[in-house]
Amino acid sequence: MHGKRLATLVMAALFGVAMALFLGRGSAYAADSAVSKLDQQCLACHSMEGMEKELADGEKLSLHVDGSKFAKSVHSVIGCAVCHSTITLENHPPSNTKITSVRAYSLEMTKVCDTCHGDIFKRYKGSVHAALVREGNPSAPVCTDCHNPHAVMAKAAYDAATGTPCSKCHDPIFKSYAGSVHGQAALPCSVCHHAHDVSAATTGDDLKSACLGCHDGVLAAHQKWLPNAEQHFETVSCAACHAPDAKRKVDLRLYNNVAQKRVAEKEGVPQFENRALAADANGAGLDAMALRGLLHEFNSEGEDVTLRGRLEVSTGVEGHRLLDKTRAIRDCAKCHRQGADPFQSVTVSIVGPGGKVLRYNAQHDVLNSIFSVDSVGGFYAIGGTRIKLLDWLLGLALLGGIGGPLAHLTLNWYFKRHAKRIGGKEDS
Amino acid sequence: MPRIYVHPLPVRIWHWINALGFLVMLFTGFQIRYIGLIDLLSFRTAVVVHNWIGFVLIGNFFIWFLFYLFSDKIRVYHPELSPLKHFRATFRQAMFYGYGIFKGQPNPFHVSVYNKFNSLQSMSYQVIMMLLVPLQFYTGVLLWDIHRFSGMINALGGVRVVDTAHVLIFIFFAGFIPFHIYLATLGHTRTAHLKSMLTGYEEVEEEQEGGK
Description:
heterodimer, A: elongated, B: mainly alpha, Fumarate Reductase Cytochrome B subunit, two-stranded antiparallel ribbon, 2 strands, 64% helix, 3% strand
């Protein structure tokens, strides 16, 4: 063979090998029969590292899919075309679909998740995460923020060591949680917070039910040593005693007595904030009279609204630091004492649209003011939130009860002395 | 000095259980409310003792109540219905305690079996036994188990309202008890009335002829 022809042959052979290698990259997972031939075609391009598309707003949307992870995932049996049904080999690349932003694309694709995962999606729609998405919050999570659809494993979204995906947004909470008795047992967040129908932590009884769901017989255990145990369970959050290092506060919740639930605000009608701002004359927080006024306004619509107080932990971060029960607070005087720290910080709250709790600051002396006996009638901690005026009355009563006799005795002694001096008759 | 039997045994038993009970309730109540100011009992112990003695006193109340209900002695608790008579008697008694007693004048009121309370006493005891004590028991029971009685408590305006009523009556008794003890020393001797509440017999003045 002549040199030129040999060189061409070698070049062709080398090119062929290169192409085979290039194309054959895809077939590394053909051995894993999980990926279909069609999917292999997609992955031929999309397994390229760094493959991305520039969007209208200048963002870059990654188009890279890790083929081996996809093969191992539970979606590999479904394949690419089921979710990406609008894409065909004929119409792309380039794709004609206009994608305005990464976020818009994620939101759009949730419809695809819904088609197979309908009941989970329904639960998600009722969650505080979905409510935030509806409000337009750009950080609120949709399906793909927690689940990588190309690498999804059965029920394994959560990683106990790092707290992902929850810690992506809730990292300070995760760090606090990691040191707690539950975190050290590597319990995932979803055990208490339900992955998809996450509700705002302080609404309803979800969290209390979560505690009581695992911890059997706790009421009976508390009744052994705690007077009014049931009332404590009603008024005090579990974390308030079981996260002993946490700062505590009182939340006065607007409560509808007839409907027997917390007052909830409708979307787009920010009554609570408007009314609270209007009532707060100095911006120093609602005082007793302002609180009465606010309550009166809520009652003026013919509803029977009262305030129900709850003693809870000040921040979510602290609330996750639940420690072993031997460390729990058992000293009554921690709260049942004048000037106890839970009563130095007070908020008034309502359930906002989507279930998130809206709070407004109140001055701490609304808990023990004579002017709020009626409005804060439902919250009272003996010894901790007593009304000063009654202390004065007690002083007066003791003065009268002891001073009166002393005065009487003194007069008696005086009259006797006087009678003696003028030689008068001495009677008892 | 002749004497008449004015305090039957059930009444005396009831009175001394009450006396001791009230002192314990006042003390434990004070400790519960003013934790931080005094520290003689732990909060929890004070609550437990307060609850137990509270129920003892409720039972004790029924000794008094049932005795008088089924006895003709209930007349001692009958109120004076004539406003004029009542006002006259009250004024006269007040004048005695405020002035006459210092001058050695005799007590205008004469004890008898069916009329052992002077006007001031009967007024006070009626209010105390028929209103204040039952109300204190009632609010106390509500506070003993707030969750169980939450319906009633909410109907009354909430736990703070119930507790305020309980504390107001506590304040009254905190003043009344020392006063009551002192008034008991205003017999013809300092210990005359104490003795009669122990023996049942009140010594009466010679000139007296039966009851009013």
